[in-house]
Design goal:
The protein is mainly alpha-helical. It has 23 helices and no strands. Among the domains are: 71 residues, lambda repressor-like DNA-binding domains (434 Repressor (Amino-terminal Domain), Orthogonal Bundle), CATH 1.10.260; 159 residues, no CATH class.
């Protein structure tokens, strides 16, 4: 071990006390928990939980990232310099399945097709009946519940060992989970997603083919999309990394491109805007857009990637680059004329990202002008409609129109209560409105603050 470490840090490393190593290294660099959190891409409270051992330091991705940030060798966290793997999370531990599964019988036995749904429904999980949480939904903080459930998978705190499942069953559960996400039913998603991830991992371990790898990647991609709505915690990095690793074995360029885009989103949240653009544009280059009639799925996703890259450019403070990338996304939408549903969805996505880009560049007036010419009915699902309305509310707040911001938030809540009551961005905006000089003129604001868990 290096001789420049303090004796206390050296001793903690020898004992395998990673929480103390983290705290000592941070203090010896003279950093606050806020500063370390900014570098890692999470909140100061998350760093505090890591240092107080309330959030386990077990995942290799997390440990390696801390070692890089703190300029420590990986051995300080009990890793080997050549170690590339990570402790297996639930569902990838190598434990034999309690119920055998022969992939050749998929689709033959309807009882076998229900194995996953029945097994995952044990112990009160909501995979088969997510509305089991409905009775307490008004009391549950959806953001905390979602983070806690996904954390159990990512950091290995769940003891459940699922059984493999047929691919048809996994696809059906994934489709339902995606519907939950698009409808902003995040409590239902939190109840369903961990079992999907762990079961997909067990199935891939047994089957080992590209299709099962793709299922693992898609499940982690969905988890990353959900985590990005919450306060940065570091969990999104782990989820995005696992999605990318699984996608590399999936033989599906769209799944891989989505994994790269979401890793770029995690980079963007941490302030690594150039890296975010590089990841996203590299993903776009891998899509097949050749020929007179390119694959409409590839074409549509190319537009999505241009939107993401444009937003990253705006976050980097580069308005010209942002405008160019969003214009390319718009141009891509025109090439989808033969596929009206895809064209409408991409056109709406471009409009939404233009609003977001103007907002982060500090151009609230331009953002609101863009919002006015956008038709809300263009958005293909509730999640995107609500996300657009929240962005408009942020623009009104930036323009010092708290009453308009508040009314737009209420409209967003009517559209999708789950989005407004879950997103960290909304909570910060509601907190700002509570302290605005005009807050007394916003009737019902404290009730909204309670519903969004801004008030304890």
């Amino acid at each position: 071990m290096p001789d420049w470490w303090s004796p206390a840090l050296w001793d903690a490393a020898r004992r395998g006390d990673h929480a103390t190593v983290l705290r000592r290294a941070r203090e010896e660099l003279g950093w606050s928990q806020v500063q370390l959190g900014e570098k890692f891409g999470c909140s100061a409270s998350t760093i505090s939980r890591f240092e107080n051992s309330r959030r386990g330091l077990r995942d290799v991705v997390v440990l390696r990232r801390f070692s890089t940030i703190l300029r420590l060798p990986v051995e300080a966290f009990g890793l080997k310099a050549t170690q590339q793997g990570r402790p297996a999370s639930p569902g990838s531990t190598g434990l034999p399945s309690r119920v055998g599964y022969d992939p050749s019988q998929e689709g033959v036995d309807p009882v076998r097709r229900r194995t996953f749904l029945l097994a995952a429904g044990l112990a009160g999980t909501a995979v088969t009946a997510p509305n089991a949480y409905a009775a307490t939904r008004g009391e549950v903080d959806p953001a905390a519940f979602l983070a806690r459930r996904i954390e159990g998978v990512l950091l290995g705190s769940s003891s459940q060992v699922p059984q493999p499942a047929p691919m048809a069953t996994l696809r059906a559960v994934l489709a339902t989970a995606r519907t939950d996400f698009r409808a902003c039913r995040y409590v239902d998603l939190a109840a369903r997603l961990p079992e999907l991830i762990t079961t997909a991992q067990v199935t891939h371990q047994q089957v080992g083919d590209p299709a099962s790898a793709g299922m693992v990647a898609q499940a982690y991609n969905l988890a990353t999309r959900a985590l990005i709505k919450l306060e940065a915690s570091g969990l999104e990095w782990i989820s995005a990394d696992r999605a990318l690793r699984a996608a590399a074995d999936a033989d599906d360029p769209l799944v891989l491109a989505e994994a790269q885009r979401l890793l770029g989103s995690a980079c963007r949240r941490a302030g690594h805007h150039d890296r975010a653009q590089t990841l996203t544009l590299t993903a776009a280059d891998q899509l097949d857009l050749g020929g007179k009639t390119p694959d409409p799925e590839h074409l549509a996703f190319h537009g999505v990637l241009m939107c993401s890259a444009g937003y990253a450019a705006a976050r980097a403070g580069d308005p010209d680059r942002a405008a160019d990338l969003l214009a390319e996304a718009d141009s891509t939408a025109t090439r989808l004329a033969g596929h009206p549903a895809r064209q409408q969805a991409l056109t709406a996505n471009v409009a939404s990202h233009r609003v977001s880009a103007h907002y982060v560049l500090g151009n609230a007036g331009s953002a609101l002008h863009q919002a006015q010419i956008s038709q809300l009915v263009q958005f293909p699902d509730i999640e995107r409609r609500a996300r657009f309305l929240v962005d408009v509310a942020l623009c009104f707040a930036q323009w010092n129109k708290p009453d308009r911001a508040y009314q737009t938030l209420l409209a967003a809540e009517r559209t999708a209560p789950g989005e407004v009551r879950t997103r960290a961005t909304v909570r910060r905006l509601v907190g700002d409105l509570l302290h605005h000089p005009q807050q007394a003129a916003l009737p019902g604001l404290r009730q909204l603050a309670a519903r969004t868990h801004v008030l304890a």
